[in-house]
Specification:
The structure holds two protein chains of two kinds. By secondary structure, chain A is of the alpha/beta class. In chain A, α3 packs parallel to α5 and α5 packs parallel to α6. The model of chain A has no long low-confidence stretch (mean pLDDT 89). Helices cover 55% and strands 20% of the residues of chain B. Chain B contains 13 helices and twelve strands. The longest helix of chain B is centred in the N-terminal third of the chain and has 41 residues. The chains are: A alpha/beta, B alpha+beta.
């Protein structure tokens, strides 16, 4: 379960203080999929980053799977991100100098999986995302949709407890986006993975069990 | 641990291989620096070798033995590391020609042996080196001018304090540019100076690579106080200083060049990291620790340097061996220098100094070069990187 309690986050920018998150509280059940919805600048990415431990709230606290992130040390936070979290970003997810296969294997190597286990998982995921013949391709040889499928496979390769996706379909056409969303939900549900996805995509709204609307850093409504 | 190292090693190798042009450009910088500095270091060693060879090979030898009793045969001085021992007898005397008299020290030598080992005969500017069995004398140019003689002219020589005068023919005139040789030494076959003194002096020439200090220690040990022995280092402290100065200057050049190259590599890597900053941000988001990130960057720089060093080493060694086979003739720049009186041809030579110092410095500096990018990436938060890139 992910419990977000009275989280505040402020940035300083050229335009002065920006309240990215203001007193945000919500709970996401374990294994559930939550869609974060809101306009650009509403605080979706900041909330995802806070849940993923990429940044710490100025006030309030976040509990993920029984751990308060603010209490974790630097290495503890790295361990949490490495073992329990998978990230998908809007673009530029893949390491340009690694092949598709090496990209998917990266979190598995990082988590100390055995060689046979890595090979089995990578080949299985490649088949799953329909790129079993592109394992040795470099990222720049893939289309945008293929890149995001590889990014999804990599994010879920080590069976994380939490998948955080920041507008993963934003740069894709609707058909490709639909395929990617279905793929993410399929693999996520199989692994009982809690998913938090910031999106404008109606496909995600329909598949998510929970939709959190954000406006100016505040939760407007929860469905 | 081992598998973790292999994993990060593979990532670093993939990064270097697939960033082909940038790796090649950076490697070229390292290759050039290492090759050039190996060559320059070997050249410095070659210059030192030439100065030593010229200084000891002209006349004095690597070791000089003085006040050796006539009862001690030269063969007693032949031991491990010794190539040749030349026996010389010195006798003070007066040279006279018509009304002019000149106090000198006559050196009685074995002309054939001297010509074989020393290079004084090459400094004969008129006439020829004396020949065994002939009553001849070789004078320095200043002596010949003072006595107003030329090769073929007769001279009277009277050993001091009360020797019988002999008439000698001037066989030739030499000029070395070295005061101790040009001022008052004249050379004649040892037979001319029979019964000249009670002691003799040895010029000892060593085999390549022999340590003069070790040989002298051996002499002092074996001959238990007989005679006095002095290495060229003791006899020529100015040359020793010059050689040390040469090494220190080369060391400074090496450090400066690698400092500049490292700065270039660090700058290029920082630019490269900024270009790929998002990928480092994603790595951080995936839980790669600061230590792992720093390790990866250091591995990248060190591996690239290692490859560059290896290629630079091969090129540098090949260049040194080629130059060593031919020699580099710098006579035009050394002809008035007393340490290059015999030859100005430099033979670059590889030594531990010339071979390992550039490599060691390259690796040390590459580690330093990796620190800046490593610190830079580690100081940036993943969220900040992903937000701005």
């Amino acid at each position: 379960m992910i419990r977000i309690e009275n989280v505040n986050k402020t940035y300083r920018s050229g335009r002065g203080k920006v309240h990215a998150l203001a007193d945000v509280s919500c709970t996401i059940a374990e294994g559930a999929a939550a869609a974060l919805v809101g306009k650009s600048g509403s605080g979706k990415t900041t909330l995802l980053n806070c849940i993923g431990g990429l940044e710490l709230p100025d006030a309030g606290r976040i509990q993920c799977f029984g751990q308060y992130l603010s209490l974790l040390s630097g290495s503890g936070l790295s361990r949490y991100q490495r073992r329990r979290v998978g990230f998908i970003f809007q673009h530029g997810n893949l390491f340009s100098y690694l092949t598709v296969r090496q990209n998917i294997a990266f979190p598995l190597n990082l988590n100390g999986f055995s060689k046979p286990d890595i090979a089995e998982r990578v080949e299985g995921l490649l088949e799953r995302i329909g790129l079993s013949r592109a394992g040795d391709a470099m990222p720049h040889e893939l289309s945008g949709g293929e890149m995001q499928r590889v990014a999804a496979a990599r994010a879920m390769a080590h069976s994380p407890a939490l998948l955080l996706a920041d507008e993963p379909t934003a740069s894709l056409d609707s058909e490709t986006a639909g395929n990617l969303v279905r793929l993410m939900f399929e693999i996520g549900k199989e692994n009982n993975c809690t998913m938090v996805i910031s999106t404008h995509d109606p496909d995600v709204f329909h598949l998510a069990e929970q939709v959190i609307h954000l406006k100016d850093g505040r939760i407007q409504e929860e469905e | 641990m081992k598998s973790r190292l292999i994993f990060w090693g593979n990532i670093a190798i993939c990064f270097l291989l697939r960033s082909g042009r940038i790796t090649a450009a950076l490697s070229l910088m390292v290759i050039t620096a290492v090759a050039v500095l190996i060559f320059l270091s070997a050249l410095a060693v070659g210059v030192n070798d030439t100065m030593i060879r010229n200084s000891v090979g002209l006349y004095s030898g690597h070791i000089s033995g003085e006040e050796l009793p006539m009862s001690l045969p030269p063969d007693r001085l032949r031991m491990d590391g010794v190539a040749t021992v030349l026996k010389r007898v010195y006798s003070p005397g007066i040279l006279s020609r018509e009304q002019t008299v000149l106090p000198i020290t006559a050196a009685g030598v074995d002309p054939a042996a001297e010509k074989e080992v020393t290079a004084l005969w090459k400094k004969v500017v008129a006439g020829a080196y004396p020949e065994e069995g002939k009553a001849e004398i070789l004078l320095s140019r200043s002596m010949a001018e003072k006595l107003n003689v030329q090769p073929g002219d007769p001279l009277d020589y009277r050993p001091l304090p009360d020797g019988s005068p002999v008439t000698l023919t001037v066989s030739g005139v030499f000029h070395t540019g070295i005061d101790t040789l040009d001022q008052n030494l004249a050379f004649c076959p040892a037979g001319v100076l029979e019964n000249a003194g009670k002691t003799w002096q040895a010029a000892i020439f060593l085999k390549e690579g022999s340590d003069p200090d070790a040989v002298v220690a051996d002499y002092r040990n074996r001959l238990s106080g007989v005679g006095r022995f002095q290495t060229w280092k003791e006899a020529m402290p100015d040359l020793v200083q010059l050689i040390e100065l040469n090494y220190v200057s080369m060391g400074i050049v090496l450090i400066l060049v690698f400092g500049v190259v490292s700065l270039g590599i660090a700058c290029a890597f920082v630019i490269f990291i900024f270009r790929n900053l998002r990928e480092y941000g994603i790595m951080k988001a995936m839980g790669v620790t600061s230590g792992e990130m720093a390790g990866l960057l250091i591995l990248n720089v060190v591996l690239m340097n290692l490859a560059g060093c290896l290629a630079g080493l091969l090129i540098g060694v090949a260049a040194v061996l080629t130059a060593n086979a031919w020699g580099i003739d710098l006579t035009a720049f050394t002809s008035h220098n007393r340490y290059f009186t015999v030859s100005g041809i430099i033979y670059p030579r590889l030594t531990r100094f010339s071979l390992w110092l550039p490599l060691a410095l390259s690796l040390v500096f590459s580690l330093i070069a990796a620190l800046w990018p490593a610190i830079l990436v580690n100081r940036k938060k993943a969220a900040d990187i992903l937000r701005i890139v």
